[in-house]
Design a protein that fits this description.
The complex is a heterodimer. Chain A is mainly beta. Chain A has helices at about 25-30, 100-110, and strands spanning about 10-25, 45-60, 65-75, 75, 85-95, 120-125, 125-135, 135-145, 150-160, 165-180, 185-190, 210-220, 225. Chain B contains 15 helices and 14 strands. The chains are: A mainly beta, B alpha/beta. At the A-B interface, strand 4 and strand 9 of A face helix 1, strand 1, helix 2 and strand 6 of B.
């Protein structure tokens, strides 16, 4: 099923993808973001940390799990193109296999935690919890709750940077989707190498928005190198 | 146009986007963002996602006439949205004073207040307001927004620190940004978090807070904040836009209510809320007044407040002092509607003031709710991002002394019915 077709689209199939949006101080967001990316501020002085986890069952690099730490940023509107629903700057990403990590670094220039992590998924009644660990050491525990489900196809934008430059890619997420702002989920960020940047960040422990997609397909569009985040 | 927008949103709803979605375009042309934004804006209006700026053709009384934005129909509504807390904007004496000023001075000030724009009515307003506030001097600004902008950017400098409440008004935030000082936000109404942030800073520090927060209607814990600021030697700016002329035995604001009139360094207020006019002021020492006259650029480089408005505001100020029963009536109304809403189980947040938020916490539903209220005869505005956090959308009820109990009963009955039908109230 997994493929990279002639248009350069790369597809990843997943059982579950969950995400939580957490408020944290903008001063911390700006310390991470490239200077010309604008964080989304739900409050004055408060930006959004996105924590996402994927349970991929089929991809160009097989089955694997992924934990992604990003900051929500203003999207880059392309003239004549569909608008992204949201945009992310990913600053740390952990995967459960070496193959998936090497693939994402080479193909997508994503900044990785260089150890294999483990992600345990607890699927409960109306909620789902992940426990991410590195050799038994806890990294993140996060619970996301469900709401109404509908079939969707959402367009997102991701920005990344490494020593060679700045990049963007469009991601299409299709599947059964639930989103709520009921503030019923939660997160525990443990003191650990992957989360060391977050230690003094005063991250809210309750997500103001919870996202959950089931039986979905993530499609990456070809990477574009950018002269500047805000220009062509 | 609709087809084009469907393609642009690609499976997402128009409500998935807001102003923050249209910050950057990928082009070198600054105008390239206009087409995408206008596509969204047009669609948002067509779908009823945008309800703002519907034209009113009557004074902001309890009952008003409004031109509905989509079909341009004239409708009569119960008004629960206007500030005008003491009902002064349409008082005959205020209108007469404004008309007399129009005859005496003409329409505008025709100059900057530091050049030719200051007229004797401006001086009179500043002097009477200073006496009312018990301060050495008052400086009048053309708008409330320009007051905070000019005050903060006029006094604070790069390297200084501004610590503002997280729910502070945009004018405080923008003034802080313009000053190029370091800016930190402390958790809303949380003196403990303020102290934590003060400990992390040194040098010149200004703490900016509000008396009553405009979107939540809650009052700041002034005694605790004053204590923390004194401990760390920080100056206090208190914006009483929504509490001046409303709180305190004489209407001097929450500083009077708490007995802390001499503990606050900079007193900000506006004329557009309780006094029903327009403009803003800074009250403080004569030295502060003299300095701001030179350094508050939002005032120096604006035309002075219209003398017509200044005369109307001056008359409103006199009525607010002479008729304390207006405040009594306002608080009677506030107690009455709060009690009615609470009996019905409506979530009014932490408000204790004349601003009563009705929490909806869902951007997608709030516009639908407002449409239903509009059709049911109530004028109530949705409050969404960026006025409040994205996930904290709400309706904002503003109570006036001029509302009758009958109007408040009618408003509560419609509100409760629609909230129940929408499943927001069980």
């Amino acid at each position: 099923m997994s493929s990279s077709n002639k248009n350069g689209l790369v597809q990843y199939h997943f059982r579950d993808a969950i995400g939580g949006f957490f408020e944290f101080p903008t001063q911390n967001a700006r310390a991470i973001l490239p200077p010309d990316l604008q964080p989304i501020e739900p409050h004055h002085g408060s930006s959004v940390l996105s924590v996402m986890a994927f349970d991929f069952h089929d991809s160009p690099v097989g089955e694997y799990g992924e934990l992604i730490l990003s900051i929500l940023v203003a999207p880059r509107i392309e003239q004549g193109q569909p608008w992204p629903r949201a945009a992310f700057y990913t600053f740390r990403l952990g995967t459960t296999t070496r193959e998936s990590r090497e693939h994402a670094i080479e193909r997508w220039h994503l900044p990785h935690y260089m150890q294999d992590i483990s992600i345990a998924w607890e699927r409960g009644d109306g909620h789902i919890t992940i426990h991410a660990t590195d050799r038994g050491q806890p990294i993140v525990d996060m619970t996301i709750t469900e709401h109404e489900w509908s079939q969707v196809e959402h367009r997102y934008q991701t920005f990344m940077t490494d020593e060679d430059g700045a990049y963007t890619s469009t991601i299409i997420m299709a599947g059964q989707f639930s989103e709520n702002e009921e503030e019923r989920g939660g997160i525990v960020l443990h003191s650990q190498a992957m989360t060391e940047l977050l230690e003094d960040w005063e991250v809210d422990v309750t997500p103001f928005r919870e996202l959950w997609m089931k039986d979905g397909l993530q499609t990456f569009y070809p990477l574009q190198q950018l002269a500047s985040y805000a220009r062509r | 146009m609709a087809t084009r927008v469907e393609a642009q949103t690609s499976g997402s709803s128009v409500s998935d986007y807001d102003y923050s979605s249209f910050f950057y375009s990928s082009s070198d042309d600054p105008f390239a963002i206009l087409d995408p934004y206008n596509d969204w804006y047009t669609k948002a209006i067509q779908q009823g996602y945008y309800l703002f700026a519907q034209a009113m053709s009557t004074p902001p009384r309890g009952r008003i006439d409004v031109t509905e934005g989509l079909c341009h129909q004239h409708v009569k509504l119960l008004n629960l949205s206007s500030y005008n807390y003491l009902g002064l904007s349409y008082r005959p004496e205020v209108i007469a004073a404004a008309k007399a000023a129009l005859d005496q001075y003409g329409l505008g000030a025709a100059g900057s207040p530091i050049l030719s724009g200051t007229m004797d009515v401006h001086v009179q307003l500043e002097e009477e307001l200073a006496r009312f506030k018990g301060k050495e001097a008052v400086l009048v600004f053309p708008t409330g927004y320009s007051t905070n902008l000019g005050m903060i950017s006029g006094l604070m400098r790069p390297g200084d620190w501004i610590l503002a409440d997280q729910n502070a008004h945009a004018s405080i935030v923008d003034g802080a940004i313009l000053s190029k000082a370091n800016v930190r936000f402390f958790k809303h109404n949380n003196p403990g978090d303020l102290e934590k942030k003060l400990k992390q800073t040194s040098g010149k520090r200004l703490v900016a807070i509000e008396g009553v927060y405009s979107m939540d209607g809650d009052v700041c814990p002034l005694p605790e904040i004053v204590e923390v600021c004194r401990k760390y030697g920080a100056r206090i700016l208190l914006d009483e836009a929504h509490s001046a002329f409303v709180y305190g035995a004489h209407g001097r604001g929450i500083v009077e209510q708490f007995g802390l009139e001499n503990e606050v360094d900079i007193h900000i207020g506006t004329f557009s809320k309780a006094l029903g006019g327009q403009g803003g002021y800074v009250a403080g020492t004569r030295k502060l007044y003299n300095y701001l006259k030179g350094f508050a650029r939002s005032r120096v480089f604006s035309c002075a407040l219209s003398p017509v408005v200044a005369a109307g505001v001056l008359q409103s100020l006199r009525i607010a002092q002479a008729e304390p029963q207006l405040r009594d009536r306002l608080w009677e109304n506030v107690r009455y509607i709060r009690s009615s809403l609470e009996k019905e189980g409506v979530d009014v947040g932490d408000s204790t003031s004349q601003i009563i938020p009705i929490m909806v916490r869902n951007d997608r539903r709030i516009f639908q709710l407002c449409h239903r209220l509009f059709r049911a005869g109530v004028y109530l505005q949705p409050v969404v991002y960026p006025a409040v956090a994205k996930h904290r959308s709400r309706l904002r009820v503003s109570i006036s002394a001029s509302h009758t109990f009958e109007q408040l009963d009618e408003g509560v009955a419609i509100l409760v019915r629609v909230l129940r039908e929408e499943g927001i109230l069980l």
